[in-house]
């Protein structure tokens, strides 16, 4: 491994397994020294305006594990870890495929039925390694199940405490899912529900949902989850123009099922980042409002694509089914994984409590647990 720099000092090249280039201004902005970054929290202490706009590399020296760079005109020397540079390299080939996914994501279908990410409530409470593994699986697969929890109202909040914080909505901090005589939402009936993402009419949507079972003596009512990312990628493989039209144009969603509430949003069914990464799916037939953002000459194509996506979502080959018993719960990434339930009978009881949280808490817990494990191993 060695390092070279261009004649003008605009960038350096790290010659490792691959050649990786780093601009002078990028390196200076990302310096890890105590004058640039706060030692306690790693936050940047300076703004870009504090760095000369004519910053260049005056000299560079490489050791086995560190690269030492001196910047002009400041004449400031900063050391960079080779490992850190490789981990943060941006001189890589851009992804050309639309709908690509991060390596942290694993798509799935009914084949995951025998390997549902599951952990026991007591173990999550007592064993950091179990919690770290379960949170990692939830982040990777978009859902996870918990068994052996307390059978008491509000126990779902203890589930959220494992990884984040409750997000309160017009439904309150939590909501009860059971039959009501005059329901404000079809979720509160015994009807079967098509797989869907929750609350697409919110902006932003709640990114994590928790459902916790307290009673389950009614026949039916099995829970079902479907990987939305797997579904839209299947759609893309079958008919690329279907994928494109659902990603290109916005749908509209609305909920006004109770007094004083009128929630609306305008988002595509398939959400892509500017570089083509697949980052979200919104699908909820109950809450779809009149679509008015698709041009006349594309509307029939949009509806054909919407229909086909629904057919793929309904395909049993895409679903994982499980029954929640009292004291069991599941957590779902509401930006990706659709959930549903089978119809259940009017005899017996079925009572679930649900609440929302946010994915940033889940990811934060995952990353913090990973870093603490690394530090303990060093």
Explain what the structure shows:
- Helix 6 (228-238) packs across helix 7 (240-248), helix 6 (228-238) packs across helix 8 (296-314) and helix 7 (240-248) packs across helix 8 (296-314).
- The chain has two domains: 2-87, 2-Layer Sandwich (NE0471 N-terminal domain-like); 110-369, Double-stranded beta-helix.
- Helix content is 26%, strand content 27%.
- The chain has helices at 24-29, 82-87, 121-126, 128-141, 155-161, 228-238, 240-248, 296-314, 359-377, and strands spanning 2-5, 11-15, 19-23, 56-62, 66-72, 76-81, 118-120, 143-147, 175-177, 193-196, 208-216, 223-227, 251-255, 263-267, 270-272, 278-281, 319-322, 329-333, 337-341, 350-357.
- The protein has nine helices and 20 strands.
- The two termini are 24 Å apart.
- A hairpin with a 3-residue loop joins strand 4 (56-62) and strand 5 (66-72).
- By secondary structure, it is α+β, with helices and mostly antiparallel strands.
- The strands form six sheets. Strands 7-8-18-11-20-9 form a six-stranded mixed β-sheet. Strands 10-19-12-17 form a four-stranded antiparallel β-sheet. Strands 1-2-3 form a three-stranded antiparallel β-sheet.
- Pfam families: GBBH-like_N (PF06155), TauD (PF02668).
- Its EC number is 1.14.11.8.
- One of its GO terms (molecular function) is dioxygenase activity.
- Keywords: Dioxygenase, Iron, Metal-binding, Oxidoreductase.
- Residues 17-85 form the Gamma-butyrobetaine hydroxylase-like N-terminal domain.
């Amino acid at each position: 491994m060695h390092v070279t720099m261009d004649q003008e000092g605009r960038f350096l090249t790290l010659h490792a397994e691959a050649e990786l280039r780093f601009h002078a201004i990028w390196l200076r902005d990302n310096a890890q020294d105590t004058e640039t970054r706060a030692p306690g929290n790693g936050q940047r202490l300076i703004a870009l305006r504090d760095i000369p706009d004519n910053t260049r590399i005056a000299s560079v020296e490489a050791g086995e594990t560190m690269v030492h760079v001196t910047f002009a005109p400041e004449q400031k020397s900063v050391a960079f870890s080779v490992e850190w540079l490789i981990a943060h390299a941006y001189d890589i080939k851009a992804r050309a495929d639309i709908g690509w996914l991060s390596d942290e994501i694993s798509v799935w279908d009914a084949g995951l039925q025998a390997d549902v990410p599951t952990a026991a409530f007591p173990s999550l409470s007592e064993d950091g390694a179990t919690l770290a593994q379960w949170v990692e699986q939830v982040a990777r697969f978009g859902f996870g199940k918990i068994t052996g929890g307390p059978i008491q109202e509000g126990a779902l909040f203890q589930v959220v405490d494992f990884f984040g914080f409750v997000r309160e909505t017009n439904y309150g901090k939590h909501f009860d899912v059971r039959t009501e005589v005059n329901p404000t939402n079809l979720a509160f009936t015994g009807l079967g529900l098509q797989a869907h993402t929750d609350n697409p009419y919110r902006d932003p949507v709640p990114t994590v949902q928790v459902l916790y079972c307290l009673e389950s003596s009614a026949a039916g009512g099995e829970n079902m989850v479907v990987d939305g990312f797997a579904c839209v990628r299947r759609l893309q493989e079958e008919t690329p123009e279907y994928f494109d039209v659902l990603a290109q144009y916005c749908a509209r969603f609305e909920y006004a099922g109770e007094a004083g509430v009128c929630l609306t949003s305008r988002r595509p069914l398939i959400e892509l980042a500017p570089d083509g990464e697949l980052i979200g799916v919104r699908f909820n037939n109950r809450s779809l409002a009149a679509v008015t953002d698709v041009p006349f000459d594309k509307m029939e194509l949009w509806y054909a694509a919407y229909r086909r996506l629904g057919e793929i979502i309904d395909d049993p080959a895409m679903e994982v089914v499980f029954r929640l018993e009292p004291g069991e719960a599941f957590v779902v990434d509401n930006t990706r994984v659709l959930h549903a339930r089978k119809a259940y009978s009017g005899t017996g009881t079925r009572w679930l409590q649900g609440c929302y949280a946010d994915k940033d808490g889940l990811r934060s817990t995952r990353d913090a647990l990973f870093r603490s494990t690394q530090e303990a191993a060093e």
